[in-house]
Amino acid sequence: MSDGDKNPASTPTPLADVQGDGRWLALHHRFIADSKDKEPEVVFIGDALVQLLQQFEIWRELFSPLHALNFGLGGDGTQHVLWRLQQGEMQHIRPKIVVVWVGTNNHGHTAEQVAGGIEAIVRLLQEQQPQARVVVLGLLPRGQGPNPLRERNRRVNELLEARLPRLPNACFLDADPGFVHSDGAISHHDMYDYLHLSRHGYARLCPRLHALLLRLLGEGQGAGP
Amino acid sequence: MSQGDSNPAAVPHAAEDIQGDDRWMSQHNRFVLDCKDKEPDVLFVGDSMVQLLQQYEIWRELFSPLHALNFGIGGDTTAHVLWRLKNGELENIKPKVIVVWVGTNNHENTAEEVAGGIEAIVRLINTQQPQAKVIVLSLLPRGEKPNPLRQKNAKVNQLLKASLPKLASVQLLDVSGGFVHSDGAISCHDMFDFLHLTGGGYAKICKPLHELIMQLLEETPEEKQAALA
């Protein structure tokens, strides 16, 4: 049981403006303002893996046609996404699906804490967006060679895969197409800095997510009003 | 006069692996290997502004044909770039043009120190790659609205405008105009997070950059012509 006080990953926390140009808060407010006159069917929320997706052509090919909005913020951990949601980032919209992809930046947190943070996001979304299906994407492996963060991310996915089916309207998708080669290496053709996906990496990963979204949208009526 | 010792931005410094997956060193090692395998005519080195450029179509359109290599690493400061250049990223290659774009991440340093760090990079390149013409790109404004970092970056550019002409084979290309609107705001259409450029944002700066690189490449004696004879 993750008590908000005890798990830093599930304690809503704004990102401190250490650099001095207020960009994080500016983007949070922009997401709210820009969504006022929109009616998205799908909303993506998470970290840079979400944010950067919108910079590639594949966003326009696969996700714009689904009327998708992108609330990704580079560097975010689960606690930052929780804060944004709590502060009403999705207050103007009622999408059919929310895609959650966050957790790889939760440095210093254990796999259990990170999983707890993601579950807290799912539960908050169920409160705020009862009509929405929540799709949680698994954390990807990272680093050029084997390292502790791969193990932690793998463990987070294991925990989520076991626990999410118990939450109504939530599902887990491991969209990793096999980024780790047989020699344990990740290629810079897939992740240019062994963390962030290149166009090629997104092209390998997105089709499965897209197919799931189409299926869920086709199933249509979930817990409607 | 800022000597390396008294200016931390001009002291080579490897990034520590705080996160635990050693990605900075992995990228550096890959670049050193690239130097052994490849023969770039143009080298780009710097932070994420350089690194992300390679992720957009414009890199393939404008710079791949020039046999360009991209040694950008997100988050890098002048001290990080200095360390990388001193530790193998300038070895075994002989580019005709080197593009340097770094400084916006130097949060611990003053504008004077940042300019000093960039000058140290240029001087290092002059020593190890005397044949290369260096283009230093100006720092861009950042943040949605006016803020201290915009002033700091502008001050760095101002200092470089004065100091770079005194160094050999280098020029400052100021691409910072056209991002701040009359109301002081920067648009998400140019910088998706008010720091990193979108494809449209890159198109604005790559046009003058590409033109300058082409100009400098044409000025360079064609050793290849002699080899073809």
From TrEMBL, chain A:
Q: What's one GO-annotated cellular component?
A: cytoplasm
Record flagged with keyword Magnesium:
no
Its quaternary organisation is: Forms a catalytic dimer which is either homodimer (alpha1/alpha1 homodimer) or heterodimer with PAFAH1B2 (alpha1/alpha2 heterodimer). Component of the cytosolic (PAF-AH (I)) heterotetrameric enzyme, which is composed of PAFAH1B1 (beta), PAFAH1B2 (alpha2) and PAFAH1B3 (alpha1) subunits. The catalytic activity of the enzyme resides in the alpha1 (PAFAH1B3) and alpha2 (PAFAH1B2) subunits, whereas the beta subunit (PAFAH1B1) has regulatory activity. Trimer formation is not essential for the catalytic activity. Interacts with VLDLR; this interaction may modulate the Reelin pathway.
Q: What one GO molecular function would you report for this record? A: protein heterodimerization activity
As recorded in UniProt, its EC number(s) are 3.1.1.47
- Note the Pfam families from the entry: Lipase_GDSL_2
Where is the protein found, in the record's own terms?
Cytoplasm
Listed CDD domains: PAF_acetylesterase_like (cd01820)
EC category: hydrolase
Catalytic reactions of this protein:
1-O-hexadecyl-2-acetyl-sn-glycero-3-phosphocholine + H2O = 1-O-hexadecyl-sn-glycero-3-phosphocholine + acetate + H(+); 1-O-hexadecyl-2-acetyl-sn-glycero-3-phosphate + H2O = 1-O-hexadecyl-sn-glycero-3-phosphate + acetate + H(+); a 1-O-alkyl-2-acetyl-sn-glycero-3-phosphocholine + H2O = a 1-O-alkyl-sn-glycero-3-phosphocholine + acetate + H(+)
Name its GO BP terms in alphabetical order.
Answer: lipid catabolic process; spermatogenesis
Q: Which InterPro entries match?
A: SGNH_hydro, SGNH_hydro_sf
Q: In UniProt terms, what function does this protein have?
A: Alpha1 catalytic subunit of the cytosolic type I platelet-activating factor (PAF) acetylhydrolase (PAF-AH (I)) heterotetrameric enzyme that catalyzes the hydrolyze of the acetyl group at the sn-2 position of PAF and its analogs and modulates the action of PAF. The activity and substrate specificity of PAF-AH (I) are affected by its subunit composition.
- Provide the alphabetized UniProt keywords: Acetylation, Cytoplasm, Hydrolase, Lipid degradation, Lipid metabolism, Phosphoprotein
Q: Which SUPFAM superfamilies match?
A: SGNH hydrolase
Q: Which family does it belong to?
A: Belongs to the 'GDSL' lipolytic enzyme family. Platelet-activating factor acetylhydrolase IB beta/gamma subunits subfamily.
| Signal peptide feature range | none
What name does UniProt use for this protein?
Platelet-activating factor acetylhydrolase IB subunit alpha1
Q: Does the keyword Transmembrane helix apply?
A: no
TrEMBL record, chain B:
**Compartment annotation:** Cytoplasm
> What EC number(s) does the entry state?
3.1.1.47
| Lipid metabolism in keyword set | yes
Enzyme class of the recorded protein, top EC level: hydrolase
Which InterPro entries does the protein's record reference? SGNH_hydro, SGNH_hydro_sf
Assigned protein family: Belongs to the 'GDSL' lipolytic enzyme family. Platelet-activating factor acetylhydrolase IB beta/gamma subunits subfamily.
Q: What is this protein called in UniProt? A: Platelet-activating factor acetylhydrolase IB subunit alpha2
What is the native source organism of this protein?
A: Chrysemys picta bellii
